[in-house]
Design brief:
With 183 residues, the protein is α+β, with helices and mostly antiparallel strands. It has a single domain, classed as Electron Transport, Fmn-binding Protein, Chain A (Pnp Oxidase, Chain A, Roll). It has 5 helices and 9 strands. It is elongated and about 55 Å long.
Length: 183
Amino acid sequence: MTILNTPAQDLSPTHPDAHNADLRHDLAGDDAIDKIRQVVDKADTCFLVTHGGVRPMGVRQCDDDGNIWFLSDKHSHKNAQIEADGEVELYFQASEHSGFLHLTGQAVVLHDKALIEKLWTPLARVWFQQGKDDPCISVIRVHPTQGQYWDNKHGDAVAGVKMLIGAALGKQFDDGEVGNLRP
């Protein structure tokens, strides 16, 4: 999949904030995984993009390695699409005004009862009426390989106050940060 737009493109060399160290924070390794977990834990859901479709998905877990886990129907189109080409994209939004995250990665479909048991929640019975022993359940694991985030530095309340003051004074009080992620 080709990423159409990244923060690096948004902050091209001619953009006034392109080299603003207060705005730009690229993260790698454990720092990138920590940022991914922060956003994913708040978001709970995302859009999963495969070669062939886009659909909302409920996240079951983001583990210590940054892998993102889902339950899925083994007969679904998304499973067939992932099995044909595991390159996927995920889009998250943690709150109304912050915690935006775009990830690309490799997805695999697994049929592991122990994982299903670990990831199971009673709400999943809506899709799997026979419970965690439903023969249609599979697990999708996405291993992020790169991504971008857009967030605020001091939380939604501080960002909101800065926006109100900026609007009243006609000035920009930027509380945002962007960066590339390399887990």
